[in-house]
Amino acid sequence: MTASGLFISFEGIDGSGKSTQARLLADHLRKQGRDVVLTREPGGSEGAEEIRALVLQGDPDRWSAETEILLFTAARRDHLERTIGPALAAGKVVICDRFADSTRMYQGVSRGDLRHVVDDLHRLMIGIEPDITVLIDMDPAQGLSRALSRQTAEERFEDFGEDLQQAMRAGFLALAQEFPDRFVVIDGGHSVETVAQAVQAAIQERLVS
Ligand code: ADP
Ligand code: TYD
């Protein structure tokens, strides 16, 4: 699938402010007259939203890490076929709240070293990376308290607690170093407005270059 649009993903630990910032960036780019599709993972298409309920609700031990890799990748494939791919082919800007880097971290690192499995399956079934990945970096204690204050049923991963979030933060920063061409790291520990301005500035720079 060759894309003519622009594919932007947001990554970071739970509660880092990704969804807030993805929405604000979409508003900002729409005001510039760009055609923007704001979407999320797991989810973003009808079938993938059904898989979302399976993977995010219930007991933390409900699925093995291997089964989760299959479920998240199945959801991503449907999302790609039905939402992301067509939008990029039509020249739109796609802003996605989490993408494959989340699987590389949550399933690839948190319960043993399964990164190669994530990458192999990604190559086989997905095959594309975002043009730009915005990593909202933030202190896990702050992120967790923000995330838990939301009180949703989707807490399988948030139940893992602060240790996992610490590992995730370090892992995401390492991913940013592994893929420096597409990652921008933004400090999420400021006001919503300050973070939004930093995101806009980083994206604007990439849109120009
Ligand atoms: P994520 O998608 O990364 O889990 P959200 O955007 O849903 O994060 O934000 C988690 C919670 O923190 C929400 O209640 C949101 O309103 C709040 N929040 C987001 N960004 C900030 C910020 N910069 N400062 C304070 N609170 C924030
Ligand atoms: P999300 O709705 O972005 O939660 P939050 O707003 O709290 O960050 O994602 C839900 C959870 O799904 C989150 O804890 C991370 C997890 N997740 C994975 O474990 N693997 C994946 O591939 C994706 C996309 C998400």
Specify the overall morphology: globular
What topology, given as strand order, has the largest sheet? 2-3-1-4-5
What small ligands are held by the chains?
adenosine-5'-diphosphate, thymidine-5'-diphosphate
**In total, how many beta strands?**
5
Secondary structural class? alpha/beta
CATH topology: Rossmann fold
Percent of residues in helices? 40-55%
Main sheet record: 5 strands, parallel
At the first level of CATH, the class is Alpha Beta
Q: Stretches where pLDDT falls below 50 for ≥5 residues?
A: none
The arrangement of helices and strands along the chain is EHEHHEHHEHHEH
Q: Overall mean pLDDT score?
A: 91
**Fraction in beta strands:** 5-15%
Q: Mind telling me which CATH architecture this is? A: 3-Layer(aba) Sandwich
User: What is the count of helical runs?
Assistant: 8
Would you mind describing this structure in some detail?
The protein is an alpha/beta fold. The protein has one domain: 3-Layer(aba) Sandwich (Rossmann fold). Helix content is 53%, strand content 13%. The chain contains eight helices and five strands, in the order E-H-E-H-H-E-H-H-E-H-H-E-H. The chain has helices spanning 18-31, 46-56, 65-89, 100-106, 115-125, 140-148, 162-178, 192-208; strands spanning 6-11, 36-40, 93-97, 132-137, 183-187. It has a five-stranded parallel sheet, sandwiched between helices. The longest helix is centred in the middle third of the chain and has 25 residues, at 65-89. The radius of gyration is 16 Å and the shape is globular. The model has no long low-confidence stretch (mean pLDDT 91). The site of adenosine-5'-diphosphate (ADP) has 14 residues, from helix 1, helix 6 and helix 8.
